[in-house]
Amino acid sequence: SHLDDAAPDNNISTLAAHFSVTWRLARAYAASRVSPDAPPPWDSRSDYSTVMQSHHDIDCRASAKYRFACNRIGDYAPEAIQAQRHWWMPFLFIQFVHETIPCLLNHPFLLSMRLRSFRQTIPVYFMQQSFEAINRNAGWVIYFVDVLEKKGVQVSDPVLAHCVVIVATIHLQHSFVQDDLLRGKAQTGFEKCMRFLRRMGAVWPCVANMANNLRRLQDSIVLRPSPAQQDGSSQTRSFSINSQLLWDLLIYDKAVRPDAGWDQSMFGPTLKADVAELSAEHRAAEFDLVGSAGISGHKAMPNEAAVWPPNEDPPPVDLPQNAGLDAQVGDLTGGPSFEDIFFEGVGPFGDQANRFFDGNDYGRAIDDWLNLGT
C-alpha cells in the first residue's frame, strides 16, 4: 500500500496543486460580475464551461491511486490518519475541492446572475443536471464532514472550511422547500456544516468569521407577506435573503471578513457608479431563491417541465440492504428522497467506491452492447 511507504508520496501534493489551479478559476467565476451579453452557462464559450472543462481535464489525469476507492478514509483508525497526515491532508483537500467546484459552478445564486438577461427558456436538462450536481457533490462533502467528526480528526486548511460554507448555503436554500425529504436533509446538512465550522473556528479566527457570517445569513431570511388568493388560500410562500451577504460567502476573500455583506466602498453606496447595476443584479439573482429546488424557481424555467414520458413511472431506486448512515448522509427516512427519485437515484446511495468510472468499465459496457446480437 502507498500508505505504508516510508518516503512521502509527493505526487499527491502535485495533484492537489493541479486542483488548486481549477479551484482558483472557480473562485474567479464566483467573484466575477457578468455582463448582459455574456453567453449562458451551457454555452461552450461561457466561464461556466471553461471551469468545468478544467475540472474534467484534471479528473481524467488523476490516478486511481489517489481516488476514494483506494483510500476509504472511514475505514482507518484516527491514530492511523494522524500518523499519515502528510498523505491524508492533501487527499482531503483534493476530495473537498473536487466535490465543491461543481457545487460552486451550479450554485443557484451564481447561475441566476448569469441568466438575469436571458430572455429565452432555460433547457430543462440543464436545470436537471445542475440540481443533480449540487445535491450529489454536496452529499459527498457532508460525508467527509461526518467522517472527520466521527474520527475526531482536526483539519487545518481554511479552504476546506470555505468548501463547507458553500455547501451550507445550498442546504440553507433547500431548508425551506416544500418537499419534506429534501427539506429535512437540507436542515440536517446545514447544522452539520455549522458544527464543523464551529470546531475549526475555535482554532482559526477566519473560520470563526465564516461561521458567524453563515449564521447571519440564516438569520436574514424573512418570510415575505403574500396576498390571499380569491378562494381564501395563501399563495406559495416567498422568502427574502441578504443577497449581498450570500454572494460574499461564496467569495473566500470576503467570507473570512467579520464585516461580510457590508458595502466596502470608500465613497459609500450613493456615489458608486455601479450601485444601480449591483442592486438590479442582486434582485435578479435572488428570484425567490430560498425555497426553490436548485434553479427550478427561476422565471426563465418553463412552468411545466415533463421529466418522464406519459404513463411511465420513475424507475425504482435500489438501496443496499446494509446501507447505513454513511451511505445515506442526511437522509432522515432511510429511503430515496425527492431528488434521488427525480434523477433516477444518482445521489450518494450504494457503494461509494463506484463514484468514478474506471476506463475499463466503458470498454466492458461497449463490448456487452456489441455482443447483444450474437
From TrEMBL:
Keyword Transcription regulation: yes
Main localization of the protein described in the UniProt heading: nucleus
Keywords, alphabetical: Metal-binding, Nucleus, Transcription, Transcription regulation
Single GO cellular component term: nucleus
Ion transport is among the record's keywords: no
Localization, UniProt: Nucleus
Recorded GO MF terms: DNA-binding transcription factor activity, RNA polymerase II-specific; metal ion binding
InterPro entries per the UniProt record, alphabetical: TF_fung
Protein name listed in UniProt: C6 transcription factor
Organism encoding this protein: Colletotrichum chrysophilum
